[in-house]
Design a protein that fits this description.
Belongs to the FPP/GGPP synthase family. By secondary structure, the protein is an all-alpha fold. The chain is 76% helix and 1% strand. Strand 1 and strand 2 form a beta hairpin. Helix 1 runs antiparallel to helix 2, helix 3 runs antiparallel to helix 16 and helix 8 crosses helix 9. The longest helix is centred in the middle third of the chain and has 31 residues. The protein starts with a helix and ends with a helix. About 2% of the residues have low confidence.
């Protein structure tokens, strides 16, 4: 898959160089952003494909021609390019300084502006350049996805995969919007609605996008039958919820050396996560008022971060979220147990379930 990404970057880099040599910096940031990461979405896409293409579960399909693996490699790579685009935009919206232990894309452009001594606002330039880079990566992702579906002999499978991809893009975009909405509007919401609203963000911003959609895209590309897609969705959605809840815990308590982001970053950003919502429910009135006053302050110091972390931990919310993660993983594995999918894929998906929900970064 990395070779597909590298090939894309090489082609597009040559095209940018023909336009203007100054675009080399834009291309360099794009390449650095696509050099790392855990590749979970690509893995789920591949094993969604393999769960259908590896060995047909129905006897009447055993002699069917196997789909071309080259197609899923390009499609899986396209998901990683799309993810990089989403991260570039996300870091701008969250005003994040770091991504994977390195300066976020807009901060890299901001530094370039300052070091060059250009006129105007370095911060504004960095944000604008980051937005354009994200847009460029979105376009490149679509090109790579099209290369994959063109390599698919089954036109109906190609169309189905494209439909799943388009649905994913819509869902994650509106999920991001809902996340921003909750950060700024929660004070005007009914307290009894806050948990369900936080859960809705989990589903659309992350759970579907991170696990369910990549599985469905890969399976659709292999020509999955409806029962196979249904089984993968029944596995993917609860696992995606558990995946994001683990991410929320890491956003508050994660080790910066492992996460690549500052300690308590979600607290500075004021994320209205399930973890935070559950904690607020249990905090005494005076503590809750102080908690609400500090949450979302970008200038929180280490002592204030530690105080908020202690409040969350002592509220019992961490224990609650761990129990929800355990429950959602159990639901996912139960859906996988007798699913009409290849045995090797079921084994790999079960292993991935453990990896993505027990991670420390």
């Amino acid at each position: 898959m990395q070779s597909a990404i590298d090939g894309l970057l090489d082609r597009e880099g040559a095209a940018l160089a023909e336009i203007a040599p100054e675009l080399g910096e834009l291309h360099a940031v794009a390449r650095s952003f696509l050099a790392g990461g855990k590749r979970f979405r690509a893995l789920f896409c591949y094993w969604g494909w393999q769960s259908v293409a590896g060995r047909a579960p129905a006897d009447e399909l055993l002699d069917a021609e196997a789909p071309d693996p080259a197609a899923v490699i390009d499609v899986a790579a396209a998901l990683e390019v799309f993810h990089a685009a989403a991260l570039v935009h996300d870091d701008i919206m969250d005003n994040s300084d770091l991504r994977r232990g390195r300066p976020s894309a807009h901060r890299q452009f901001e530094t370039q502006h300052r070091q060059a001594g250009w006129g105007g606002s370095a911060e504004r330039y960095g944000q604008a350049a980051g937005l354009l880079l994200g847009d460029l990566l979105m376009g490149w992702s679509d090109q790579l996805f099209d290369a994959g579906v063109r390599a698919t002999a089954d036109a109906s499978a190609a169309w189905a995969a494209r439909a799943e991809f388009e649905r994913m893009r819509t869902e994650v975009t509106v999920g991001q919007y809902l996340d921003m909405l909750e950060e700024d509007s929660w004070r005007l919401r009914d307290e009894t609605e806050l948990l369900s609203r936080a859960q809705r963000v989990v589903v659309y911003k992350s759970a579907k996008y991170s696990v369910e959609a990549p599985l469905a895209i890969g399976a659709a590309l292999a020509g999955a039958a409806l029962p196979q897609l249904a089984a993968l969705r029944a596995f993917g959605l609860p696992l995606g919820i558990a995946f994001q809840l683990r991410d929320d815990l890491l956003g508050v308590f994660g080790d910066p050396e492992l996460t690549g982001k500052p300690a308590g970053d979600d607290l500075r950003e004021g994320k209205r996560t399930v973890l935070v919502t559950l904690a607020r429910r249990r905090l005494p009135g005076s503590v809750r008022r102080l908690f609400d006053e500090l949450l979302g302050d970008p200038d929180l110091d280490a002592a204030q971060i530690a105080m908020l972390q202690t409040a969350v931990r002592e509220s019992g919310a961490v224990h609650d979220v761990e129990r929800i993660i355990e429950r959602e993983v159990g639901t996912a594995l139960a859906a996988l147990a007798d699913a009409p999918l290849t045995r090797s894929a079921r084994d790999q998906l079960a292993e991935l379930a453990s990896v993505v929900t027990a991670r420390s970064s």
